[in-house]
Please model this.
Amino acid sequence: MAGCDRADPPMNRAGKTMAPWLLGAVLASGLDTAGAQPPVPEAHDLRADGGTSRERDAPIVLVVTREDCGYCALLKTAVIVPMILSNEYEERALIRELCIDSGPDVVDFRGRTVSPFAVANGYDALFTPTVLILGPDGSEVAPRLVGINNKQMYLWYLDRAIEEGTAEMIRAGQGGPRRVNGPD
Model:
């Protein structure tokens, strides 16, 4: 069959098929896109987030945005906020927003206080929205997602990137205590 390749549906860590209705259910629940949605947690201290990432064996999902970016607002409203509300990703990823034109200074992975723009520029991620999947040391552990052209499929792509990032962290030995094999 030419054209689209069929992939298995995303699974959660318990091996259950993730609810494909998640995005629609949250949006249909009356989520007010004009401001009643919970905010996406801001990146404040990426070094500390790296430690949490290592402890949880979960990558950091860094959502790079701009204040007046309509596509950034769409991504947050249609994908990121529903992910947070679902609690499906609470243990699977640390989700942080980095607003590069109006956000407060942040502590980077080296412990330096820098502007959000400097962090994004270091990743060559100035086109927004860009979603980076980062390991505990700040390295990219899965391909980034740039822009949003299909909000119906974006969660699927992002979920796959999170799974790939988690697998890469395991391969690279970036996980926490649960990754230790055998006695010390």
Notes: The first helix runs from residue 22 to 28. The longest strand covers residues 140-146.
